[in-house]
Amino acid sequence: MENIRSQFLLNPDIIHLNHGSFGACPKPIFEDYQKWQLELEKNTVNFFVKQGPILLEQSRKALGEFIGCDKDDVVLVMNPSYAMNIIAKSFPLKNGDEILCTDLEYGAMDRTWNYYCKKAGAKYVQQKITVPVTSKQQIIDEFFQGLTSKTKAIFISHITSSTALRLPVEEICAIAKQKGLITIVDGAHAPGQIPLDLSTLQADIYTGACHKWLLTPKGCSFLYVNRALQELFDPLVISWGYQSETPSHSQFIDYHQLQGTRDIAAFLTIPKAMEFRKEFDWETVSDSCRKIAQANYQRFAEAANATMLCPASDEFLVQMCSLEINCPDTVRLGTLLYDKYRIEIPVFMHGNKSYIRYSFQGYNTQEELDKLFAALAEIRNTTELLS
Ligand SMILES: Cc1ncc(COP(=O)(O)O)c(C=O)c1O
User: Fold this and answer.
1) Distance between Cα 72 and ligand 1 center (Å)
2) What is the pLDDT of residue 281?
3) 49 C-alpha vs ligand 1 centroid, how far in Å?
4) Pairing, β 221-225 against β 353-359
5) 200, 215, 280, 315 — which has fewest CB within 10 A?
6) Is the dihedral of CA 378, 381, 384, 387 positive or negative?
């Protein structure tokens, strides 16, 4: 995969096993990004007023074709937190209502829902999922144990952050819809890592990041809302699209696309990112990465003296593998791995548990994972940071 490695801007002195946190953008896509910034600067008024809306529509179209939705049902936003704040702020919550989620959700999303639930007197129910997980059915059964007559919506990650587990969101959304609930999915890690088809997935609301596994520059994410629900959600930033004097055919797009003066260059790179995927046959790249990630999970667990969080199968694992570790200081362990071994890998807390997670992307090699395992073994033998 040397040809692929050379496409990326990553520092060659660092073993980058953390694609999951902020992605990594290949050179041709980054050049496209800079091209748009230059265009914008050369002719600001024309760019913002005339070209901008047309170019954004082209980006939404390219994205919609990839994720299986109409271009007018998806808006481009900076990050999934932004998307979920749009939703949680306007969600019609009443005193006593409940939002059902798992205890494996991303911390920023937990904070968002907790904040708005508290304001409305509603409850954010973080249903416990037993980890290691053993089957999809176990997750589904445990999740719905949190359901009550007060549940208004479910909120769930397609692929979790600290535990890196692919959850059975397709099945869970189908059951939730049968029960008349609104389904909200945090798919930050999904697009580009697993196939996504919003026309069949019964998610009413879905957010995903393009700057992780779709390889765009940072600040490119999306919010999809089922057309029937779009009018529920006000813009997070009230601007010219609200009570527009020149409304377009879609209030949803007017509301959330017009957000004051901002750099939209990252949004415009989606067509280039799609072209890059085709040129490098990224589905095949991604498939082989997934296989290597899974094949190394057991060795990772042995090196860190930890237990795998799930069977090493397609049901639960894609291009990231995580372990719960016995570590008294995650910051120090992460710093040691970076400073001494030159390995960038996230070591973090979720609740009171410590985790370490590798990502495997097209630019990574087996040799890099071998170095990680050797480093972990040495750290176990020589420090108190891993036992
Ligand atoms: C599950 C999950 N949701 C959401 C996010 C997005 O976070 P942000 O909005 O801070 O980019 C992440 C980022 O890693 C994540 O792992």
Assistant:
1) 24
2) 97
3) 31
4) unpaired
5) 200
6) positive
CA distance linking residue 280 with residue 125, whole number of Å:
43
Rounded to an integer, what distance in angstroms lies between the CA atom of residue 146 and that of residue 27?
Answer: 46
Separation between Cα atoms, residue 134 and residue 308, nearest integer Å? 11
Question: Is there a contact between 4 and 363 (Cβ–Cβ < 8 Å)?
Answer: yes
**Are the CB atoms for 116 and 88 separated by under 8 Å?**
yes
DSSP letters, 153-219, are: EEEEESB-SSS-PBP-HHHHHHHHHHTT-EEEEEETT-BTTB---TTTS--SEEEEESTTTT-PPSS
Q: Are 198 and 60 in contact (CB under 8 A)?
A: no
What is the pLDDT, as a whole number, of residue 1?
Answer: 62
Give residue ranges with CB within 6 A of ligand 1.
21, 79-81, 106, 108-109, 157, 161, 186, 188-189, 209
Which amino acid is it at 51?
Q
Mean pLDDT by runs of 10 across the 387 residues of the chain is: 88 98 98 97 94 97 98 98 98 98 98 98 98 98 98 98 98 98 98 98 98 98 98 97 96 97 97 98 98 98 97 98 97 98 97 97 98 98 96
Place of tokens 């047309």: 54
Residue located nearest, by CA, to atom 5 of ligand 1: 188
Strands (E), the chain: 15-16, 74-77, 98-102, 123-127, 151-157, 182-187, 205-209, 221-225, 307-308, 320-325, 343-344, 347-350, 353-359
Grouping H, G, I as helix, E, B as strand and the rest as coil, residue 96 is coil
CA of 157 to the centre of ligand 1 (A): 10
Domains of the chain are 2-26+281-382 (3.90.1150.10), 30-274 (3.40.640.10)
- pLDDT at residue 261, as a whole number: 94
**Looking at residue 278, what is its pLDDT?**
97
| pLDDT reported for residue 2 | 62
Are 28 and 8 contacting, i.e. CB atoms less than 8 angstroms apart?
no
What is the reported pLDDT for 84? 98
What secondary structure letter does DSSP report for 318? S
Pairing status of strand 343-344 against strand 307-308: unpaired
Rounded Cα–Cα distance for residues 113 and 85 (Å): 8
